[in-house]
Each structure stands twice: as C-alpha cells, then as structure tokens.
Amino acid sequence: MTERVLSFEKYRDEFYQEFEEYYAAYPLPAPEAEHMPVDTDIGKKAAKTKPCEEKSRIYRAAVKCPVHVFRYFPFYYEVCTGRARNGLTAGFPPEPGIGGTMMRNHSAIEKRFFDFRDYYKERNLFISFFFTDFAHHCIGYEKVLRLGLNGLSDQAEKKRKNTQDAGQVSFLDSVICGCAALKRIAENFAREAAEMAGREKDGEVRGNLLRIARTAARVPAEAPETFYEALNTIWFMREIVMGLEGIGIAVIGHFDRLLYPYYEKDVREGRLTRQEAKDLLSFALNLTDAKWDLRTDPPEGGANTAMTIGGCDQEGRPVYNEVSRMILEIFEEQELVNPKLQARISRNHPAEFFERLARIAGRGKNVLSIFNDEVLIPAQVRQGKELQDSRLYVAGGCQEPVLSETEVNCRAYIYMSLPKLLLLTLGVGEEGFWEHEGLEPVQADSCRDFEEFYACFLGKARQIVHRVTGYFNEWEREWYGYNPCPLYSATITGCIEKGLDMTQGGAKYNTSSFSPVGFGTLVDSLFAVQKVVYEQKFLTLHELRGCLNRNFEGSERTRAYLANRVDKWGRDSGEINRLASRLADDLTLVFSGMPNTRGGWFENSLFTNTGYVSLRGTEATPDGRRRGEILSRGIGPGEATGHTNLSRILEGLGALNLENHPASAVLYLDLPYSPNQMEPRIYEAVIRSFLDAGGSVFDFNLTDAEVLLEAQKNPEQYANLVVRVWGFSAYFTALDRELQDEMIARNRSH
Amino acid sequence: MDGMIFDIQHFSVHDGPGIRTTVFFKGCNLKCLWCHNPESQEASPQLLIKGQGCIACGSCAAACPTGARRLGDDGGFIPDLCTGCGKCASVCYPGVLEISGEAMSVSKVMEEIRKDGSLYCNSGGGVTFSGGEAMLQIDFLEELLRECVKHGIHTTVDTAGAVPWESFRRILPYTSLFLYDLKCAGGEVHRRATGADNRLIVENLNRLKETADVWIRIPCIKGINDSEAEREGFREILKKPGKIQRIDLLAYHSFGEGKYRMLGRSAPEFQPMDAVQMNALKDALDEYAPVAVL
C-alpha cells in the first residue's frame, strides 16, 4: 500500500458527519432500476418469467444504479439501489428499492400468509413475521475470499456446460449474471473513486480515493490478496448482495479467523502496520453505527449485524490472534452498538481471551454474547453435519447459529408459545381450535397421575407442532417463486454444484427451527400441575382449568399459592431441575426431526427473542402468571421468579443437556450492576462457570435499575447508554417507553 | 447441631474475595443505631410483615394460636403476644408474612454452600459467615468451618469482634480470612452508637492480626464517625503491630429501611459520610493497607 491508511482517530468525526449527511437523505429514488423490471416486462408476464430470470433483471438494473464513494471511509460498498437507511433488519416487509422488487411483484402471498397466520396469532399459539426466515443469513465469505467473483462465475459456467436441466440452467445463468453485475459495480466504484480523486485537494483523502480506485478495478472480481482487500470484500458482498437480494444477511463473518492470514502476510511483507490494520478495523466496525439512524428512529429488532470472533478453525485449532486482540481493543476503547460481538469460547482458549471479554462485559458495553463451542459444535455434529463444517459456525442476528459457507437455515420465524401448548392440553383457550385443525380434543381429566398427564401433553404438543410444520412447509415451497437468491446462493457450498437456489435446498445443509417461547413458564406450570393437582391434590384439574379460564379472578389465594408455594425454575432446585432437564430433552422430540421442503430438517432451539412479549396474551398459566404478563425468556426463569439468581441458574443449566439444541438455548443474563462496579474477574468467573455448567449461549446485560431510571429522567446525559434488548443492542434512551419500563422492572426486584 | 440462620445469599461480591455465598447468622450483641439488618439483632425467629400483597383471606388470624395476629384495621398484629412460631406465615400464600430465622443443621447449610463450587473455583471466592454476629453461635460456626475446610472451600468470617478471644482461638485453624468491623474508634462514641465498649474489640483485633489474614471494614456514617478525632482514633487502632490485608470503607446505605417497617419499627435516619471526610479517612488509613471505598 503506497497511500497511508486514514487514521481513525483523526478522521472519526468527519467520517460520521459525512455518513450522517449522506444517509439522512435516504431512501433516494432508485433511478429507473426500480421501474424497469416492474413496468416493462414483468408486470403482466410475471407468471411466465422464471423466478431466476426475474432476479437477473434486478442484477442488471443494479449496474445502472449510481455508486457512492465516501471521502473519509476506506471501503466501497454503497450502491444507490433505493434501499432505506435502516434497511434490512429482517428482509421483510420488502425493502424499498430494487432489492424488494420481486417480493413486491409477488405480494399476493402476503395476504394469504397473514390470513393463515393471524388465526394462530389471535390465539397466541405462535407469531410469525413471515413464512420463512428472511433475516439471519450469512454469505459464504470464505468462498468469495478464496475464489473471487471470477471463480464463482467460472464454477457456474462449468456446471452449466454439463447440465441440460432447464431449472438448473436458469439458476446458473442468474448466478453468472449476478457475478457479472457485481464486477461491473466494482468497476463503477473504480471509476467514481478515480474521478473524485482527480478533484480532491486533501492529500490524505486523495490517497484514500486512489486506493479505492485501484483496488476496485480488481477486487472482488479477483480474490483479495491483502488485509484491506479482504476486509473490503466482506463489506462489499454483505451490503451489496443484501441490497440486491432483499434478504437480511445478519452475519458479517468470523472476522479473526477470516482476516488473520491476510494480516499476518501483510505485516510480514512490510505492507501494513498494526496501527493501520486497527484503523481499518475501526472504520469497518463503525460502519453500521454510522450508517444507521439508531437514535431518532431506531429499528425494532436492531441493525441485524453480528460478528463472530474466537472459536476455532476447520481443524479445531483455537482462534485467538492479533486480529482478535485488535477487535477486542476497539470494543473496549469505543462505544459501539453494532456489530454485536459474538464470542465463541472453549477451554482451549488462552486466559487472555477470557480476561478481555470480562473487561468488556464489566464495563457495561452490553454488546456481548458468549457462545460455548463445547456444546454448540457437538450439537451440530449430532445432527449429522460434518465436524469440519460444524467447527465453522457463526451466529446470525441475535443468537441463531449457522455453519459458515455450508448451511442455509431458517431459525427465527415461528415463535411458538410453549405455555399455550400446555393450556390446550388442559382445555384452556381452545374454542374451535380442534375442529379448525381436524384434531381430537384432549381428555386430560382422565389422566390418573402426572406421568399420564405429561405424556398427554407431549403427545398433543407434538401433534400440533407437526401440523404447523406441515403448513409452513407448504409456504416454503413458494419461497423460490417469491424471491430466489442466486447470487447469494453462489457463495454457499452445494448450490452451484446442485444447480439449485438456496430457497430450493441448494446448500449442503438446509435446516429450520421453531423458536419455542416460555420454557421457564412451561417448566413452572407443569411442575405446578404435578404438585398441586396430582400430588398434594390441592386442586382438581377441573378446578385449575376454571381458575385459568377466569384469569384467577376470585381465586387470589389459589393464585398466591401457585405463584409462591410451588418451586420455580431458576429459584429452587432438585426436583424442578429434574423436570426441566427431562422436559428440555422431550421438547427436542416435539420440535425437531421433521423434514422441511429444502431437503433438510427441523432442529431444536430454546430462544425467544421478542416472542416472550408478543405472546403475553397467552391465557393465565398454572405457575400463577396472569394473562398479559410476559412469558419467560430463553431458558431463563419466569419473570415473576425474581431477580437473576446466577447461582441457581447455573445449577439449573447444569441439569440441561443443551447438546440437544443445535439452534442454541439462550440465557439472557441481566445483571443488576453498574458498569465498573465489580472486578473484571467476577465476570470472567461467570463466563467460565457458564462453560463448566454446559451452557449454550448467553447475552450479557448490565442494567442497574437506578441508572436506567436516571436515564429516563435525563436522557441527554445518558445518550450513549447501551443496553441489550432481546438479542440486539440499542441506545436505552431511544427505546420506546414500554421496553424501557420492562427493563427497569426486571432489574429492580432485588 | 442446629444454628439460627436468617438468610443465605448467593453470588455476593462484596463480602471478601471473588464470588461468595454469605450465610447470615441471627442474633447480635451490638445494637448499632444504623443497623441495616435489623432482623439480625434478635437471636430468635421473628415475624416480618410486608406492607403490600395482602389479599385479606384471613388464614393467618385463623392459624394464630396466641391471638397476636388478628383481622383488623390496626395492622392486625400485637407483637407482645407473638411467639414467632410461624404458623401464620405458613398459611400466608402471598408471602406477606414471613418468619425471619430458621434453625438449620450443618448439613443443610453445607448443601447450600456447596452448590456454588464452580463460581468459587473460577473467581477465587468461597463462603462468608456473617450476621448478626456469627461468633455468638461459636459451636455451630466451628462445625461449619471444619466442614468447609474439609471440602476445600475458602472461608471468611465477618465479625464485629465483641466476643471472648477463646472464640477466635477455636476457629482460627479453619478460617482463611476475617472481615473485621470497626464501627467507631473512640470508646465513648462506640458505646453511644452500638451500646457496647470497644476495648475488647480492639484487643481482639490486635491479637488476631498477628496470626490471621484480616480485612478491616468501617461503616462510614455522617455524624457518627466522621470527626477528625474518630479519624485519628482509627489510625491509633490500626497502627499497632501486625498486618492488615485491606481496608474497606462502606458508605452508609438505607437498604435496611424496608426491614424496619416489616418489623413494625421505625427506620433510623442516617446519611453516608460526606465524600470529603470519606477521602480524608481513606488518606489517613492507606499507609496501613490498601483502602477500597465501597
């Protein structure tokens, strides 16, 4: 590199200001591109056009969209496709701009789907934003870094020569078209940067523009060779492919594993200093916070950008290197909201890694999730995935694990209320449901003991879940016609080889999962039934049903008994932990193993994201929870159980076999402490004990209720206070009041 | 052997090194005016009544054998008649009535303590016996400490030191660390504030720090121990031979208020020591050991 890398410290303010000024005007009208495919051919003939051909038109249109190069930012990635500033948090509803064109053209499916879904939503059985997961995908960055676009295109060309199948040809043509379009776009960047450099007076900025011009002429058409080129390739692919495909690519990659070889080579050959590499990383990690409007109009669900560090490589060697260190330094030194820092840990990692993570946690950065390799890798292998592939998992938007380069999955799209499954078994809130489903109602009153009741519950739950799976599989068949993603598919192992789009099961692994919400509420409720109905015979099932149907009105003493006199998950131990352990295993039989339509299967997860709030309308539950009170989150205790009792939760975790949950089981760990209140080694101990207990994933959230209350009163003084919501991070003062209040209430109860 | 325990708190981070489980012994021989654990003072079980949550079901009154608990507008409780038997609390499902103080066996306490082994191990933590005054139940304490040592658990005893030296002598072999509370330095000030002289406390401290690891803990309260004379007095006490590992200055907090209400007592009104005095105290003492302000 002949030009100096822009100093992040020197240019940070200019960079943020330039982004703010530029993106404040978003969405820009997409010149002709938006209209071209709609008005000319597709409008009426859409039915006749093959989906991939329809997509190719978008790729071609993208080449005509202007590109934007920033003076104070070293990477090139912004194509004015008409996309929104806070775009693609979920890929649905469709983005403005050309990325959403196909979905808008085929929007008839939306109403049909919503009609179907709303029936269940009204009954609080499940919520679903859309019929498939549009948000939590990961580009096969490894493949692009290895082969460049030319390599992807060549692979598709070769396959195309050897196939006669019209569907495959259509897909491969689209891949080739998409790669060509991306290369043309890179050329547009090169031209634009060169022109800007010609006019530029500031020497350092000119240097930046010239490097962009020179690099874009070659990369990512060719495989990147330097640290800068590799980092740029990641952002180029992530932002532009997302803008064209209209799907959410939550994962920006396993940074330290992907980038270290380039860093090491550059430094060895004298091309790059550590400070320059750190400056580049700083710019790269600040992109999301600078681009998005996170203060005045924060997106529900966050900016959907997650980065993985640590973990291991394909051979199982732990990853912790100079790039990891620089990233951790940046998180410690700066106030980032994004990307989310997804740290994969194992006992093979050096103490330094734990110490640095603990410092970030202890300072209340609240952007950190911890992933336990020792549970999550075996969990993938158990599903029949190859060990070498399983070692390369990353984690989408919130906590959804996905194998980098080899897997396309749908992890966060059906949030099902576990307590509602129990209530249906009990005969609460079932009006018309069984007839609607063509299923036999339950006769739980004839159960002679808890074992029979438990079996009855599992059986019914399984029946319902399988029924719902069938519905979603029908919808999934429409995915290809609605929005195929050949360009994205080209980066994933298997798609070109099979000549199949990712929506049709092109990837090597194609998994799905339900998000079962309210595990803690279910454990507590089942335990209450066991104790109160079958052992103490305090109530009959009939009487309990009556209480629940009346939302405990007139049964205050019974409610108090259920809420306070029956053991609770996460507060007590022994017997209830045994029930939780058994239930977590049995739920995998309910929620996993069913085939999807992409040649894959459903896997189990225990994470809730927003579901614990959205499904709060679930009727009163046997744990004493009233209708309208939120459900439990992740694998955590019920919300009425009191403040986080870490000791009891770890004990409970130890009882669960989380290797059965490849789609992750999440502990949302709200610790009621102020930043810097405790020594970092306390947090280090928490992380290590989490490993010891065999936990799967946990989110750190330091939220002292007093501090949050102060922030509500004086928001201007707490503008940079970052909190963890359900799987994403946000400025506390920018959250809506209800969410703020909920967070305060949760952390006040101690 | 049973001991009278009123709380076992997991994940304590301010009662000694690392992550700890703190076992609170009921009964105390000092009566500090600002006590933030008022339920720890009496050695026997006591009824706590919460201000909210009563559903007026009447079960407590029906269960009370002495007529101490009755239905009425006056709060429905006659403390003089209460024997602390707990029959009312046992039928109070909303948890408005609660008995503070449970006779627990050594093995039952150990069961609780041993649950947190992983946290102790990873943080360099352990168990802390606090109170009340844990050393008033010396037989029970000694037995617990022996058990902890047997299981390799780091042990800490938090004491105000107003007990015979013999009690210290018995537990010395099993105690890794003492948290030693110094309330006030001047004898008369101490007597007024805690109801007892501090001569024994100071003597015990002088002997203790020659043989054991000791952290000093000083509650910092405005109008009680924030005078220059007190500051000098603390220096006098701490400058005696023998090593102290650390000094914690604990700013007064009013977390105990609710407990006073639940005991039917009015809460004392105190303020934390001003920051200026707190810093002066820190500066005055840091030649004897590192000082932490908590």
Automatic annotation (TrEMBL), chain A:
Domain PFL: 1-626
Keywords per UniProt: Lyase, Organic radical
Modified-residue entries (Glycine radical), positions: 727
Coiled-coil spans in chain: none
Family matches, as PROSITE patterns: GLY_RADICAL_2, PFL
MF term (GO), any: lyase activity
GO cellular component: cytosol
UniProt domain Glycine radical: residue ranges: 633-750
Protein name stated in the entry: Uncharacterized protein
The organism of origin for this protein: Diplocloster agilis
From TrEMBL, chain B:
All residue ranges annotated as the Radical SAM core domain in the record: 14-294
Catalytic activity of the protein: glycyl-[protein] + reduced [flavodoxin] + S-adenosyl-L-methionine = glycin-2-yl radical-[protein] + semiquinone [flavodoxin] + 5'-deoxyadenosine + L-methionine + H(+)
Keywords on record: 4Fe-4S, Iron, Iron-sulfur, Metal-binding, Oxidoreductase, S-adenosyl-L-methionine
SUPFAM superfamilies: 4Fe-4S ferredoxins, Radical SAM enzymes
Listed GO MF terms: 4 iron, 4 sulfur cluster binding; metal ion binding; oxidoreductase activity
Xref: InterPro entries: 4Fe4S_Fe-S-bd (IPR017896), 4Fe4S_Fe_S_CS (IPR017900), Aldolase_TIM (IPR013785), BssD/PflA/YjjW (IPR040074), Organic_radical-activating (IPR034457), Organic_radical_activase (IPR012839), Radical_activat_CS (IPR001989), rSAM (IPR007197)
Pfam families for this protein: Fer4_12, Radical_SAM
Cofactor(s) required, per the database record: [4Fe-4S] cluster
Keyword Cell membrane appears in the UniProt entry: no
Entry annotated with the keyword Coiled coil: no
4Fe-4S ferredoxin-type domain mapped to chain residues: 45-74, 79-102
Cited PANTHER family: PYRUVATE FORMATE-LYASE 2-ACTIVATING ENZYME (PTHR30352:SF4), PYRUVATE FORMATE-LYASE-ACTIVATING ENZYME (PTHR30352)
Family affiliation: Belongs to the organic radical-activating enzymes family.
Protein name, UniProt field: Glycyl-radical enzyme activating protein
Organism name: Diplocloster agilis
